[in-house]
């Protein structure tokens, strides 16, 4: 038999020894077949060269490859074609520079089954992902394997954890339950179809909206979200949206590189559905299905080289997450969003593109809008849960975005990028966001001060608190003139007043030690006004159903009850005895009951508040004689049994402290008279004393200029020049633009 003998190089003799010779530890001639195998009349099998760096068994690798081939054979042919078509090098052009191009995007594969109870309607299901359960209170997460979704780009050259990161991001808001009460699968459900979900078809199990419904959802987003968080440039996003609408279902496979646009359009639809005036069960189910569909495209977003685009994706995830009844998940996604902005150096002025006219630069202003939108959401969550900010204000050097409309922003190098002068007095659609961010910066300084390890020493003097009150009163005085009394929306004086009162509560968290020292007199009226105003907006359907909004109402109701519990009857001032107090408690109870219909996880919050409202007497009067020493044992036992759940949901240490005190301690029915006189005298002396010194951080931007003693008598906006450099620097101090309160609020974002 003729044999083709291959003589290897001298250096490779040892590496090319056949398996038989290597196992018998004998010399191999290196030819194939070798002399030893020829003499033994056995098959001569070559062995692979020995690599010193190889750490994976060859047989194990081959077994894995066979398993992969077996699994790929079970995937539909269409998906295999899309997977291979997606392995194209992504373009390096900035998405913000090609937003209006009319490219086409392939159709998405079937979305995974929405994580809702079986009794709730859903658009489609897929068995391509295996759920990973998480034992978080009130929610469980379903983690789809990120590499099985259709059309994922090649991650060659990227971090090895990219797929895992994308999978985590894709499921941070994919909760197992929307919060609606669980029902028996066999029971009938009354069909509740809105104008949007009626138009959803189930072609290929992918949610499809009619052009009319899609246009309406985009309009809702641009009207209710974009003025407060303008991180999406209007013309750029409209360009993405128009190209998305123009694509046919047949030619999407040839445009895999543009699938990142589908993520943004679909996420805008998903968020807008939750902001409609009447959100039905079907709207929420459709929003979740749209979210699941958007997650099929998130890998394409992170495959783009633009870090600003990645931050915008985080922001949309955060907006959607605010409607989910899981506090841990909300805090996690907000922290991830802000941390990514820091890693991308969006908070640093030196990392910006150096252009001759940054106020009108689309690239610079989009970058700033993205960061400050993330900043506002981060401060919102820090305030709701009373947790530290994810980045200190002293570490931020980037300026606020300019008061320039989208139509006046242009790419660098274009004919319209010539040097122009910004007009501070001109109102634009970003003016509301500038005012929102100013209040968030005030709240940020309050929270960061209260989070300090030496806060007890700082709080021993009321100087820092009076400085904050001066800045807050200055903000309110600048907003009041443009509030619309007749309006039922966010331009009304009621809404602006509620935002002011929220910050008053943040500054004056009552304790047994300070409630009779003016804190109760400030907290009770603030709670009353917030509860009544929120209920009014809820009846007028002007508030979105946000989980942090629910928690803010819980905090307001608990604080109001605590003030009555902690203040002895003889020290309850006229602020406690207003006839609006019972109305406020009823309004808070009703608001919590309505929100509990939206989320089953909110039912313990509603029940605990109702129990405390029945136990805590108002105006120091009770039907019992003598009055009880503490709340009933039955109520205390019930609330105590709910405390582990309340701790994981509320997270606000001050609110949890007030609940624990009310269920474990006696009513403070008396107060040492001498101690009370000392408190009052100390409080009055501080209020009348000089405010020239402070104990805040030396880096505090509010206090680098000495304040004058008459600050509280007549608020002077010039007393805080460095704070105004960020926002007021673009305005005149008395400019009515600075008083524009449009769309500011706490109950909705």
Automatic annotation (TrEMBL):
What Gene3D superfamilies does the annotation carry?
Zn(2)-C6 fungal-type DNA-binding domain (4.10.240.10)
User: Which ranges are annotated Polar residues under compositional bias?
Assistant: 82-94
- Give every Zn(2)-C6 fungal-type domain span: 17-46
Database matches in SMART domains = Fungal_trans, GAL4
Q: Which GO terms describe its molecular function?
A: DNA-binding transcription factor activity, RNA polymerase II-specific; sequence-specific DNA binding; zinc ion binding
Keywords, in A-Z order: DNA-binding, Metal-binding, Nucleus, Transcription, Transcription regulation, Zinc
Q: Which GO terms describe its cellular component?
A: nucleus
* Protein name per its UniProtKB record: Zn(2)-C6 fungal-type domain-containing protein
Native source organism of the sequence: Penicillium nalgiovense
């Amino acid at each position: 038999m003729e044999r083709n003998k291959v003589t290897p190089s001298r250096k490779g003799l040892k590496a090319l020894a056949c398996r038989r010779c290597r196992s018998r530890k004998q010399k191999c001639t290196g030819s194939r077949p070798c002399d030893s195998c020829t003499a033994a009349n056995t098959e001569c099998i070559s062995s692979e060269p020995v690599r010193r760096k190889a750490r994976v068994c060859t047989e194990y690798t081959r077994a894995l490859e066979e398993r992969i081939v077996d699994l790929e054979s079970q995937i539909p042919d269409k998906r295999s074609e899309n997977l291979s078509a997606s392995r194209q090098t992504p373009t390096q052009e900035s998405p913000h520079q090609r937003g209006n191009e009319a490219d086409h995007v392939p159709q998405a594969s079937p979305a995974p089954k929405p994580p809702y109870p079986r009794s709730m309607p859903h658009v489609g299901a897929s068995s391509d992902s295996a759920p990973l359960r998480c034992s978080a209170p009130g929610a469980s997460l379903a983690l789809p394997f990120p590499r099985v979704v259709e059309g994922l780009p090649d991650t060659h050259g990227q971090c090895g954890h990219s797929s895992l990161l994308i999978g985590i991001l894709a499921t941070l808001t994919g909760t197992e339950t929307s919060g609606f009460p669980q029902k028996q699968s066999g029971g009938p459900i009354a069909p509740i179809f809105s104008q949007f979900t009626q138009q959803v078809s189930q072609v290929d199990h992918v949610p499809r909206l009619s052009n009319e419904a899609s246009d309406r959802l985009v309009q809702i987003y641009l009207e209710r979200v974009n003025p407060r968080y303008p991180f999406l440039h209007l013309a750029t996003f409209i360009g993405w949206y128009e190209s998305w609408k123009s694509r046919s279902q047949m030619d999407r496979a040839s445009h895999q590189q543009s699938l990142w646009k589908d993520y943004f359009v679909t996420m805008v639809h998903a968020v807008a559905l939750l902001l409609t005036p009447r959100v039905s069960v079907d709207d929420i189910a459709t929003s979740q299905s749209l979210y699941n569909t958007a997650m099929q495209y998130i890998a394409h977003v992170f495959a783009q080289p633009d870090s600003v685009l990645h931050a915008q994706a985080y922001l949309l995830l955060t907006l959607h997450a605010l409607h989910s009844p899981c506090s841990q998940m909300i805090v996690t996604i907000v922290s991830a969003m802000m941390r990514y902005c820091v890693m991308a150096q969006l908070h640093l002025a030196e990392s910006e593109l150096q252009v001759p006219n940054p106020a009108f630069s689309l690239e610079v202003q989009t970058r700033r809008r993205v960061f400050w939108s993330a900043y506002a959401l981060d401060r919102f969550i820090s305030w709701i849960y009373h947790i530290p900010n994810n980045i200190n204000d002293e570490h931020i050097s980037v300026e606020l975005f300019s008061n320039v409309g989208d139509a006046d922003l242009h790419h660098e190098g274009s004919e319209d990028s010539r040097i122009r002068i910004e007009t501070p007095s001109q109102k634009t659609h970003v003016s509301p966001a500038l005012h929102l961010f100013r209040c968030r910066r005030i709240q940020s300084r309050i929270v960061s001060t209260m989070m300090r390890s030496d806060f007890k020493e700082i709080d021993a003097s009321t100087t820092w608190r009076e400085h904050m009150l001066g800045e807050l009163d200055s903000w309110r005085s600048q907003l009041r003139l443009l509030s619309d009394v007749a309006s039922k929306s966010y331009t009304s004086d009621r809404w602006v007043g509620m935002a002011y009162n929220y910050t008053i509560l943040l500054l004056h968290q009552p304790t047994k030690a300070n409630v009779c020292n003016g804190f109760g007199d400030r907290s009770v009226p603030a709670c009353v006004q917030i509860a009544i105003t929120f209920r009014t907006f809820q009846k007028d359907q002007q508030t979105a159903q946000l989980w942090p909004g629910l928690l803010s109402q819980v905090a307001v109701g608990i604080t109001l009850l605590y003030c009555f519990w902690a203040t002895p009857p003889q020290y309850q001032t006229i602020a406690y005895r207003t006839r609006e107090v019972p109305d406020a408690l009823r309004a808070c109870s009703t608001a919590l009951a309505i929100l509990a219909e939206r989320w089953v996880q909110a039912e313990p919050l509603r029940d605990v508040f109702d129990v405390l409202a029945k136990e805590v007497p108002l105006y120091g009067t009770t039907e019992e004689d003598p009055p009880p020493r503490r709340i009933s044992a039955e109520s205390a036992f019930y609330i105590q049994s709910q405390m582990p759940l309340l701790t994981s949901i509320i997270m606000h240490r001050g609110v949890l402290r007030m609940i624990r005190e009310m269920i474990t301690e006696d009513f403070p029915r008396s107060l040492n008279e001498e101690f009370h006189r000392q408190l009052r005298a100390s409080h009055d002396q501080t209020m009348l004393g000089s405010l020239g010194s402070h104990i805040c951080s030396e880096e505090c931007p509010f206090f680098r200029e000495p304040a004058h003693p008459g600050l509280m008598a007549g608020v002077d906006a010039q007393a805080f020049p460095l704070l105004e450099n960020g926002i007021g620097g673009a305005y005149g101090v008395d400019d009515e633009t600075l008083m524009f309160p449009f769309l500011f609020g706490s109950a909705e974002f």
